[in-house]
Design goal:
Residues 13-95, 143-221 form the Doublecortin domain. Keywords: Repeat. With 238 residues, the chain is of the alpha+beta class. It has helices at residues 2-8, 40-50, 122-130, 166-177, 220-224; strands at 13-19, 28-32, 59-61, 68-69, 80-84, 104-106, 112-114, 119-120, 138-145, 154-159, 186-189, 194-195, 206-210. A hairpin with a 6-residue loop joins strand 3 (59-61) and strand 4 (68-69). The longest helix is centred in the last third of the chain and has 12 residues, at 166-177.
Length: 238
């Protein structure tokens, strides 16, 4: 019986998992072994640790169309998936990591706005190549959604050397934040004070995108950013 049981045991599968809404995360390889993971929930717990997710992973989606994966048996060897908490699937070009910023349009301030709603500048490519957010005057901010304690902050890469058009930034934040209240009308610091221009943005700081409603003072940082001190500055940069 034991030899027959070993023969019938499903083989291990290798999958690659991305973080939902993170255009910079290159993906993590995870081995799906049903002897190790008796339930789908156990596998999701392992994915949470493997990709250093800010919140527990509770859903898995296909990367192109966002089809929900509900069981271990649905996972296919060699395939790619997107891990999410309870937030909805964020459609990005996960499979072409590092090239999605090339497909954009350039505005009068020489900033590229990609189809996924991220802001880039020509200098940003050099920042990514050198692996340093300080190279050539590039920096990053993280943005929470006002009143939302389920969605992790999304990254905002910017260039210090390129003038930033504030209206263009708010438009991009509107597309990316997808607030229930509608358009993003202001950006606030975690203490609720409003940011009035791009020159006030600080590298590595966290902000909150706010619509027409009032700023909601909540423990965004404490609940949505990993406790690991090494990950508390921009968890999405690998």
């Amino acid at each position: 019986m034991s030899s027959r049981g070993l023969a019938l045991a499903p083989p291990a599968k290798n999958v690659v998992v991305y973080r939902n809404g993170d255009p910079f995360f290159p993906g993590r390889k995870v081995v799906v072994n049903q002897r190790r993971f008796l339930t789908f929930e156990a596998f999701l717990n392992e994915v949470t640790k493997s990709i250093h997710a800010p919140l527990a992973v509770r859903n898995l989606y296909t990367p192109r169309h966002g089809h929900h994966v509900a069981e271990l048996g649905d996972l296919q060897d060699g395939c790619h998936y997107v891990a999410a908490g309870f937030e909805k699937f964020k459609k990005l070009n996960y499979l072409n990591h590092g090239r999605k910023e090339l497909r954009g349009t350039r505005n009068s301030e020489d900033l590229q706005v990609s189809t996924s709603g991220w802001l880039f500048s020509p200098i940003f490519h050099s920042c990514r190549n050198t692996g340093s957010s300080h190279a050539l005057g590039c920096f990053y901010c993280s943005v929470f959604r006002n009143g939302d304690l389920l969605s992790p902050p999304f990254p905002l890469p910017l260039s210090k050397s390129t003038p930033l058009q504030w209206d263009a930034l708010l438009a991009t934040l509107t597309e990316k934040a997808n607030l229930r209240s509608g358009a993003v009308n202001k950006l606030c610091r975690l203490d609720g004070t409003q940011v009035s221009g791009g020159e006030e943005l600080v590298n590595g700081d966290y902000y909150v995108a706010v619509g027409n409603e009032e700023y909601k003072k909540l423990p965004y940082f404490e609940l949505l950013v990993p406790q690991d001190s090494a990950c508390r500055t921009l968890w999405y940069v690998d």
